[in-house]
């Protein structure tokens, strides 16, 4: 008898509640449309997720006849709301199952979506004994099971008492907005009706921003990224980002261009997503750009300090990686996080961790490759230095072999000219020549000799020429004691003296004067050879002796040594060598 009473009451309640006042005001309609936009059209995809075909409902578990009759009445009511949808109770194959639990069991739900539609749904629920609460529970779970939705993100779209806005069946009021929302969602012309309503409310641009937000976001990110990469690529091809060699001006220009690339990305991305350019973007970017610039400037000075420090390469690499971790984590959190408008601390920290570890790992790999490459380059450089040294030695030996025969030719000519005139002078000259070549042959394998040894060779040579010229030749040598041990190339002074005799003294009839003066000035060794012979021509280098000296200077000192000559007020030839420098 009690079951029949309960059954009668449930049927009566179902009849009364199902046909509640369905009138809905225009204001409530708009609120319902706002609720649809907020709950049923997601942020990413604007596709509704609901049943596309028939809805076969099966009751399972601990239910009774009153529950079946109540569900049947609710389905009957739904058929009036959704005339194009086939909704029915079944005892066989179903795609919407309600499993009635024993009292005290927690409600649970399983849903399987496929290609933007609900394929199957299973709801486990506990029905209270109170007839009205029982009715509300079935109504609440049935209506909510027909569509997938999210909670309202803002209060303006919330309808109190609506089945889609309350978190408990006991809070619903069988609101007319329930049926209005379901009717619109299952309408064949839903998107057309939604478009007309939303465009009328906010305008065409806002409608497009809402409906195509995902596409606009992807397009903005990809397009902005491509433009920024294109800008950077052009600068790279122009070699704008080659190493600044710690020139602060170059680094600042490179930093500004890097920041400008980020601005290009951000401005394009924001413009596409908002479908128009907003001047407030510039105001937002200015403090952000300053923050990023200060971070990169700190990075520059720390890197410079590490690179110039006198520590091992391994220690430098470790310090550079630590610097990269610290600066990149700050940059990612303050710079990229703000640039992408990430307000969540958790998301910023995750982005910071991923970017920092990724870029630091890449830099470690590049530093390792650079170190390997530098080791190879150093090996190649050592090989080249060794080859160049051997080549230089060969060239110097070749020059040495040219100098000795040339001098021998002049000396033998002098001996020949004296042999028929003065036998004693000829003998003296021959002995001096023997001493000279004894020095030359003993030292020929040495590239460098002391200044004292070179001057002794010059004195021997002048002694030979003194025998030849007699009173027609006078010479003097000025060599400070502190310079005698300076190392110089062998046979670098003797050709100057030989040239003074051959092209100077031998060309005049009066007494010839040769003066050799050695001095130190501005960390250079200066050797001057004075003579009172004819003036030096504009191109004295064509003389063999001077040419050999010039070649030696170029081979040994490069552009650090030079040779010059002068005719006024005194005639002399000068060679200048860097002190304590052989390279």
* CATH class wording of the largest domain: Alpha Beta
Could you name the ranges where pLDDT drops below 50 across 5 or more consecutive residues? 11-21
Structural class: alpha/beta
| H/E element sequence | HHEHEEEEHHHHHHHHHHEHEEHEEHEE
The fraction of residues in strands falls at 5-15%
Major sheet strand order = 2-1-3-5-4
Largest sheet: 5 strands, mixed
Q: What is the end-to-end distance?
A: 120 Å
Task: Please state the CA-atom Rg, rounded to the nearest Å.
Answer: 51 Å
The best one-word shape is rod-shaped
CATH architecture of the largest domain: 3-Layer(aba) Sandwich
Indicate how many domains the architecture comprises: 3
Mean pLDDT: 81
The CATH topology of the largest domain corresponds to Collagenase (Catalytic Domain)
Describe this structure in words.
- This protein is α/β, with parallel strands linked by helices and 583 residues long.
- The chain has three domains: 2-202, Collagenase (Catalytic Domain), CATH 3.40.390; 210-373, no CATH class; 386-578, Histidine kinase-like ATPase, C-terminal domain (Heat Shock Protein 90), CATH 3.30.565.
- It is built from 16 helices and twelve strands.
- It has a five-stranded mixed β-sheet, covered by helices on one side. Strands 7-9-10-12-11 form a five-stranded mixed β-sheet, with helices on one face. Strands 6-8 form a two-stranded antiparallel ribbon.
- The chain is rod-shaped, with a radius of gyration of 51 Å.
Structure summarized in a few sentences:
The protein has helices at 2-18, 26-39, 65-81, 131-145, 176-185, 190-202, 204-211, 213-237, 248-274, 280-308, 313-339, 345-419, 423-443, 451-469, 494-503, 544-557; strands at 55-61, 87-89, 96-100, 108-114, 117-125, 448-450, 473-478, 487-489, 512-521, 524-531, 562-566, 572-578.
């Amino acid at each position: 008898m009690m079951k029949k009473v309960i059954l009668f009451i449930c049927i009566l309640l179902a009849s009364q509640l199902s046909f509640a006042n369905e009138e809905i005001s225009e204001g409530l309609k708009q609120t319902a449309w706002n609720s649809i936009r907020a709950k049923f059209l997601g942020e990413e995809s604007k596709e509704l997720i609901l049943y596309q075909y028939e809805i076969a409902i099966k009751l399972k578990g601990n239910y009774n006849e009153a529950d079946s009759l109540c569900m049947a009445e609710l389905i009957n009511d739904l058929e009036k709301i959704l005339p194009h949808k086939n909704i029915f109770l079944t005892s066989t194959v179903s795609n919407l199952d309600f499993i009635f639990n024993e009292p005290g069991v927690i409600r649970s739900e399983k849903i399987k979506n496929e290609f933007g539609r609900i394929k199957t749904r299973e709801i486990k629920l506990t029905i209270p004994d109170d007839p009205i609460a029982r009715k509300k529970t079935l109504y609440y779970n049935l209506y909510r099971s027909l569509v997938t939705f999210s909670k309202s993100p803002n209060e303006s779209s919330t309808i109190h008492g609506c089945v889609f806005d309350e978190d408990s069946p006991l809070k619903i009021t069988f609101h007319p907005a329930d049926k209005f929302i379901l009717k619109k969602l299952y309408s064949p012309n839903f998107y057309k009706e939604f478009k007309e309503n939303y465009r009328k409310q906010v305008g065409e641009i806002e409608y497009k921003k809402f409906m195509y937000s995902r596409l606009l976001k992807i397009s903005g990110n990809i397009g902005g990224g491509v433009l920024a990469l294109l800008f950077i690529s052009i600068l790279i091809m122009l070699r704008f980002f080659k190493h600044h060699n710690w020139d602060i001006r170059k680094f600042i220009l490179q930093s500004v261009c890097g920041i400008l690339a980020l601005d290009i990305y951000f401005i394009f991305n924001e413009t596409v997503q908002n479908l128009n350019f907003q001047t407030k973007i510039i105001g937002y970017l200015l403090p952000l750009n300053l923050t990023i610039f200060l971070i990169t400037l700190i990075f520059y000075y720390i890197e410079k300090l590490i690179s110039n420090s006198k520590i091992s390469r391994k220690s430098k690499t470790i310090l550079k990686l630590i610097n990269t971790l610290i600066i990149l984590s700050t940059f990612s959190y303050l710079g990229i996080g703000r640039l992408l408008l990430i307000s969540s601390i958790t998301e910023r920290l995750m982005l910071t961790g991923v970017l920092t570890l990724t870029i630091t790992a890449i830099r470690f790999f590049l530093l390792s490759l650079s170190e390997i490459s530098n080791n190879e380059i150093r090996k190649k450089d050592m090989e080249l230095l060794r080859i160049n040294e051997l080549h230089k030695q060969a060239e110097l030996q070749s020059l040495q072999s040219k100098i000795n025969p040339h001098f021998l030719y002049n000396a033998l000519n002098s001996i020949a000219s004296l042999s028929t005139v003065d036998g004693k002078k000829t003998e003296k000259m021959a002995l001096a020549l023997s001493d000279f070549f004894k020095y030359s042959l003993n030292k020929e394998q040495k590239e460098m000799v002391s200044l004292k040894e070179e001057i002794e060779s010059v004195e021997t040579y002048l002694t030979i020429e003194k025998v030849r010229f007699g009173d027609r030749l006078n010479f003097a040598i000025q060599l400070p004691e502190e310079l005698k041990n300076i190392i110089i190339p062998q046979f670098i002074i003797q050709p100057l003296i030989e040239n003074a005799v051959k092209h100077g003294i031998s060309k005049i009839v009066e007494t010839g004067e040769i003066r050799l003066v050695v001095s130190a000035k501005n960390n250079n060794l200066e050797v001057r050879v004075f003579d009172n012979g004819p003036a030096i021509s504009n191109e004295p280098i064509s003389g063999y002796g001077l040419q050999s000296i010039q070649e030696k200077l170029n081979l040994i000192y490069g552009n650090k040594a030079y040779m010059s000559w002068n005719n006024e007020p005194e005639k002399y030839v000068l060679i200048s060598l860097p002190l304590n420098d052989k390279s």
